[in-house]
């Protein structure tokens, strides 16, 4: 092949990778550009253009796939601004799925001395491998958000938001306190709920499904109920103040850590309810609560913003005035 045939082959390879509507225009532009480059190189070297010279130019110009990409708009599925949130949510989601799944598959073998290796194998195949749906969902969600953002850029106009994260909605938090108190009394004896609705005529199977085991009643249950009751005065204090103070935040963190420890104890100690049909969902819910409590603490810890003062004593790089 001579020099011009090499250029034609290169141009055809690039054009074949482009949408049909672009091919002719890009091929004409690229052929002209390469021929001018070849003629200029030949003139500078003082010799006729030859295949070796043309091949050197084409190889320095780049792979046909890379050149074709320059003529097309960049396909961005996830905006760069969403890269870190995507990675963070992917990691947190996978850790939650793997942790809850590991707990679900291990607590029975650990409690009964069963086949732990077999349980780990099931966890790997049924939880870890299949958990890849979560990053897929995030990619789809962020991709749709990116498309919507580019279609309607006016919807992304910045608006001011309150930076006071400690202020609370007293009405909503008061309802939460009431819910905690009512839920605490219901958890003292869950089977009493059946008596309220069925007047003591509920089937024995239903009663067993909401009856605690003796081991749970004399183990983690009193501690769990006490911690649930203690949450009410903590939130009531927040309602009275109208905001979270530093002391109340520290008490909340301590309460959350102790609650997570007690819930983990309850999950690993053995059955909660007498009936397996209600025991498994209950222990799963307790495990999810532990993950949620710890995850919430981590998120609040890393999302907090406290601008540090500058060396001169001011904020934001501006020195404080001495007046």
Defining traits:
elongated, 14 helices, disordered C terminus, 3 domains, mainly alpha, 323 residues
Count of DSSP helices?
14
The rounded distance between the terminal residues' Cα atoms is 82 Å
In one word, what is the shape? elongated
- From the alpha carbons, calculate the radius of gyration and give it in angstroms: 33 Å
Task: Describe the sheet with the most strands.
Answer: none
How many extended strands? 0
Q: What count of structural domains? A: 3
Structural category is mainly alpha
Elements, N to C (H/E): HHHHHHHHHHHHHH
Strand content range: under 5%
Overall mean pLDDT stands at: 82
Spans of 5+ residues with little confidence (pLDDT < 50)? 311-323
Helix content: over 70%
